[in-house]
Amino acid sequence: MKKFEYSELSKSLLTPQIVSLLTTIHEYKGEQNLFIESNADKLSDLVEIAKIQSVDASNKIEGIYTSDERLKKIVMDKTMPKTRNEKEIAGYRDILNMIHENYDYIPIRSNYFLQLHGGMYKFTGLSIGGKYKNVDNIIAEMDSQGNSKIRFRPVESWRTPEAIDELCDAYNQALKDNVDPLLLMPMFILDFLCIHPFNDGNGRMSRLLTLLLLYKSGYIVGKYISIEKLIETTKESYYEALQQSSLGWHENNNDYAPFVEYYLGAIVAAYRDFSSRVQILIESGFSKPERVRAIIKRNVGKITKAEIMKQCPDISQITIQRALIELVEKGEIIKISGGRYTSYIWNEEKE
Fold first, then answer.
1. What is the pLDDT of residues 285-338, one digit of tens each?
2. Are strands 343-346 and 333-336 parallel, antiparallel or unpaired?
3. Residue 198 confidence class, pLDDT cut points 50, 70, 90
4. Ranges 83-97, 147-161, 203-217, 238-252: which has the least confidence
5. 336 contacts 324 by C-beta, under 8 angstroms
6. Given this structure, which CATH class describes domain 286-350?
7. How far is 233 from 286, CA to CA, in rounded Å?
8. Cα(181)–Cα(185) distance, rounded to whole angstroms?
9. Where does CATH 1.10.10.10 sit in the chain?
10. How many Cβ atoms are within 10 Å of 108's Cβ, its own excluded?
11. CA separation (Å) from 145 to 8, 82, 319, 331?
């Protein structure tokens, strides 16, 4: 039977790689919380962009789609959901908003998890919302020939409520034992996914719980940068780390390190992305072409037009393209041709 012994397990995770990630996150947290406190009004646009990306990415991982136009309207609550997919998207939106606004009042307890899960399905009318699984489930994968094979057998349905209670108790006790929350969170999320407590929605719930755990421990970067989007763009690495860390799970012989490293790496990426966005806000008095120029100048090495667009979602592709052409003509940047992978670099000799 699986035992959740986080206080002891956390000691074995303090490898040089993980310690380095922890140190980086702690440094980012300190300096960026100061910026957030003094510039909250300037960050509203980032919150809205992250919200749209989070709802889109977390559902897209599970094959739940709608058009970009419909997605934006649903996230901004400017239309009613029509299809099954849109109803699930709207449910995710509402729970995401709840976590953003009320995380301090949501304990890490099983009955609250059921409420969050029920909220995800409130528009669908499905009876599975807010209930633990009533049949045993499996985690399967497809091979290159299209054949399905079992990758992992989660906890049996009859034992699921007890397992979730034990999971929550272990997490809360480890916090009291002063285990670093950044080590606890990925272990908790991995164990949640291995229990796989619901008939449907386990992946989306794990990403919502990721935000909840981060916020409750003071790491609010996910409010401004979509961690769900970062997971979606690296989902192959995510699933690989999940598989590696789930081997031997039932026998209490699994290695949490691969998933912890992936998880902490995603948080570091979010903080770095936030730093870039903050720099853009500082430069918000610049014209749009000046912002493009500043991004290329401070970037180390090459940068593509797509990467510039990612940092400036409010600047149109046409405006960015015009700015690039003008900067090349002035000799301030150098164009490195590569077809669709064309990139640009700051011309140091022009200084």
1. 678 888 888 888 888 788 999 888 888 877 888 999 999 999 999 999 999 987
2. antiparallel
3. very high
4. 147-161
5. no
6. mainly alpha
7. 30
8. 6
9. 286-350
10. 17
11. 42, 36, 45, 52
Question: Structure tokens of 168?
Answer: 């929550």
DSSP 3-state of 324: helix
What pLDDT was estimated at residue 256? 97
Please, are residues 183 and 5 in contact by the beta-carbon 8 Å criterion? no
Quick check: 119 and 94 in contact, CB under 8 A? yes
Q: Which residue spans of the chain are classified as CATH 1.10.3290.10? A: 6-280
Per-residue pLDDT, 283: 63
Q: How far apart are CA 191 and CA 150, in angstroms?
A: 18
Q: Which long-range contacts (CB under 8 A, 24 or more apart) does 23-31 make?
A: 24/268, 24/271, 25/182, 25/219, 25/264, 25/267, 25/268, 25/271, 28/221, 28/268, 28/271, 28/272, 28/274, 28/275, 29/218, 29/219, 29/221, 29/271
CATH architecture of 6-280: Orthogonal Bundle (1.10)
